[in-house]
Amino acid sequence: MKPALKQETLLTQIGRASATQSVNPPLVRASTTLFRTLADFKHSYETMVFESPQYGRSGTATTFEFQNAMAQLEGAECCIAVSSGLTAIAAVLGAHARPGSHLLVYDAVYGRTRVLCEKELRPLGATVDFFATLDELRARLTPATALVFIEVPSSLTMAMLDVEAVCAIAHAHGVPVACDSTWGSPVFFRPHALGVDISLHSATKYISGHSDLMLGTLTGTYEKLEVVRTWCDRYGSHAAPDVCWLALRGLRTLAVRMPRHHANALAVAHWLQRQPQVRRVLFPALEDDPGHALWQRQFSGASGLFAIELARCSEDACERFYDALTLFGIGTSWGGFESLAMPAIPHHLRGLKVQPDDGRLVRLHIGLADPGDLCDDLAQALAHIR
What we know:
With 386 residues, the protein is α/β, with parallel strands linked by helices. The chain is 39% helix and 16% strand. It has helices spanning 7-13, 38-46, 61-74, 85-96, 111-121, 134-140, 163-172, 185-188, 222-235, 241-251, 254-273, 292-298, 315-324, 346-349, 371-382, and strands spanning 78-82, 102-106, 127-131, 145-151, 177-180, 198-202, 216-220, 278-282, 305-310, 328-330, 339-343, 361-365.
């Protein structure tokens, strides 16, 4: 038996089965898939496991190269690539939401996840409850519960959750667990090893790494993903082959980029803790963060995304802070090579039990630039806050 490949090596080998005379697999664009025989055609529609091309909507050979690569990387049986991270969220929640069904969702999830639950799933007849603690999870599980959905850490407050405990509680009631695993990437977070049934990523972020595509992934067993695959096929949610081809390119450098994001973010976070204009830094990789112990147990590293709460300041002073930044762009998303400063907008704050005090919450993504240069840029921008 061959020894298991280290992750850094695996990333250079996976997703290359069709690369017969080239380093990278070719990009295959197609709407129509041709079959050698009628029996092959019928077989493709009788088997609902999407492992090979069936029709362009569900993918070409390029799509399956990427899906197979992600499945191997996550330690899962299979993967579904969809058009965005939000599509992945909608697919897993929508596939389990039926009239009379019950969904339990972590209270601090991404704002658009909560909006989807409240504005789309509840009107369809599904009951959606939110939980903040393990005790609340236990208390709110019912015989009708079809799914527990979590995100770790939460993308705004960086709150940590005991994933193994959540899975143990849910599985004791026969309920699957889905987890938004985007923050840690497959390099630093192994959700399936902790008991998660369905792991989803906004591959727009670290998996791409170049901020030039929109993509989502879902990994798990064939059994757990069957209902999600069916949902995606009915709604035409599968990813385009061009995007999967670009994402395969991003995967090759993932194991190199993530440690750099970790080191840069930690350096900038430590510097920010010493600045009088910053009330607190929300980052589980910091030793004094309330979620640090859980982060150490569940992650092997940290990404470049964290939040800070500015000291009390006026709207004008806060605006001057943003506008003075030169190395940080002002924009949504994260996970690329660039550094970003992102103000918390209403849907980010929706449902938070603990709102920021008098300060202003800012999400920072620390990219691949020199951390000293990034701190210098933050210093001159923070000087606008009195």
